[in-house]
Amino acid sequence: MSAIIYIAVMAVTTYLIRMIPFTVFRMKIRSRFVRSLLYYLPYAVLSAMTFPAIFYTTGDIISASVGTLAALILAFFDLPLIVVALCSSLTAYAVSLFL
What we know:
The protein has four helices and no strands.
């Protein structure tokens, strides 16, 4: 019975999160600041959740930092996500082997 309650609460929460912006913001948002805030907010939240986990994943801060640096450099050159992920993982693994 508790699983049904959990699913119902999750469904209502998901529905409210998606419905509230449509009811509150009926007109087009004209403020340049608010529009840019809403555009960049998902990236900022994702970064805030991801970066701390990156540095503790390998168990060694040096290999994680080198892998992150490799990912940032490759992403700067607009390489595909799969290339960035694989190369940064391989870089972190190679550095952890040498340490």
